Here is the input.
Amino acid sequence: MTVRELRLIGDPVLRTPCAPVTAFDDGLAALVTDLMDTVSLPGRAGLAANQIGVSLAAFSYDVEGARGYVVNPRLVATDGEYDGEEACLSVPGVHAPRLRAAYARVEGVDAFGRPVAVEGTGELARCLQHETDHLRGELYIDALTGERRRAAMRRLREAGLAGP
Here is the structure.
């Protein structure tokens, strides 16, 4: 089992859009294994490749019994509204209410280039949206506004972490 070190807010890799995967080889297989191993620790729901320092479009998820990964994911459908607490492994100690779609569908491929689709509601929908945001170089705190944003920024300063 290989659990990779997490990159934290302030690391430029988190703000750089990830490149599409073009080589479906042993390197990709190793990345997928590392993503799955790293997300499997307790308290983790999703992990984008750039959170472990790899600027390729892939993420893993482990939410309420749904477990897997998607390479070159695209968020293709959303519906409804779902407001709830959100956090991020790359922004430790900070959580905030964040409005997301209540339903989300992501399409992409597996490590062999075969089509895959993942869809879900509630926390799985939140995770799918959160991880696809990461792959575009975005953090969940970027979309916070008003008092939600001010409170998150205050927690970031108190934790000694750089702002977005």
In short: The chain has a mean pLDDT of 94. The beta strands are 46-48, 58-63, 66-79, 82-87, 95-100, 103-109, 115-121. Residues 2 and 34 are 6 Å apart (CA to CA). The two ends are 32 Å apart (CA to CA).
